[in-house]
Amino acid sequence: MKWYDGAVFYHIYPIGMTGAPRTNAFEAGEHRLNKLIDWLPHIKEIGCDAIYIGPLFESVAHGYETIDYKKLDSRLGDNDDLKNFVKVCHESGIKVIVDGVFNHVGREFFAFKDLKEHRENSAYKDWFKNIHFDWNNDYNDGLYYDSWDGHGTLVNLNHQNPAVREYFLDVARFWISEFDIDGIRLDAADVLDFTFMRELRSVTDSCKQDFWLLGEVIHGDYTRWVNNEMLHSVTNYWLHKALYSGHNDHNYFEIAHTVKRCTDMGMHIANAFYNFVDNHDVARIITKLNNKAHFFPVHVLLYTLPGKPSIYYGSEFAIEGEKKPYADEILRPELKIEDYKDAVNTNENTKRIAALGNMRLNNQWVGEAGYRELLLTNRQYAFLREYGDKRLVAIVNNDDNNADINLNIGGRFTELFSGETRDFDGNMHVNIAGNSGQVWISNN
């Protein structure tokens, strides 16, 4: 079993979490990345053993318009800070995954600056997509270029050019040798060149054993990306949508259908997916839910359905965050550990997430377990995760009222939240409170 098979992730947007300025002055200043070291005991306490952090490298503003891939963003500190952060994480038993923004670059990236200066004579004129020297752009450069999603600050790279691919393969080698990272999350993987991703997999496999590649993919057939030649995992936006809308609409059929869509690709594929209920690009889960009490069953599903669970920093405290146009800062706030230092004891939401996270770490087999639906109505849903003689039964209820549940399951089980142990003779009969969840784990 590889480390990522049973991993539980904590997602950090460092520029926001550390309170860094939203615009880079490119001056040596505070070593803000060091603030995150104080969060590691909390991250461990809530049952996370991997951190996905990014973007990290020198950029102009939000971080995804990278201009220097071999230098930690000046607002966060210097390269020694990043080396030390990864080292301390590893000493704490935490793996570190970083953002790889390889689809596009910022306008101040060295090759694009050379293109603007030397135009047709630039050695880098073939590094970018759809360059036209007889057109113009919003910055009046006297040339046109493709940009990601029409954002002119994000200049699309031409990965058909072998020189571009080799440059970013060298970046990956540098990150592994210099910082000892354990994986890369590929930004905008759904539009990234497939040849490059295959070459990246080959390079990272040769550089570090059990190195993990995650791709940001929203739509499409996920098996196009998740296979033995390309990526180990993709962001499961299908399940993300189903988890909140299935509760808002009192429709567990939507969630169960989405799970079947994933498992029909193969259990090894479904278990590989990176599951989440919110991140730096979407509204906080507590904000999306019509009934805030559904926070509990949503997270029971996040941690027990096939896939690798991830918590976006702050959401373990159920903080709010509404998605608004051109206001991503709302989703990426500064947080201080002293404000939440006792949350596992004082915040019921944090306490439950910690119980779920530690359950996953103490039962690594769940990361590779099979899945079987046991009960499905609009308002109640139960399923079995099974690996050899190990079993987990998850039950959720999105109704305001208690529900009696009868499942064809036998054996001795202990319920995660109550600690109750019961022997079932082939009929698991339990009563579940409204807007809640139960997790029963077999005693073998």
TrEMBL record:
The keyword Magnesium does not apply. SMART domains: Aamy. Transmembrane segments: none annotated. CDD domains: AmyAc_euk_bac_CMD_like. The keyword Glycoprotein does not apply. Pfam families: Alpha-amylase (PF00128), Alpha-amylase_C (PF02806). One of its GO terms (molecular function) is hydrolase activity, acting on glycosyl bonds. Residues 11-360 form the Glycosyl hydrolase family 13 catalytic domain. Coiled coil: none annotated. GO terms for biological process: carbohydrate metabolic process. It comes from the Bacteria. Keywords: Glycosidase, Hydrolase. This is Alpha amylase, catalytic domain protein. It comes from Lachnoanaerobaculum saburreum.
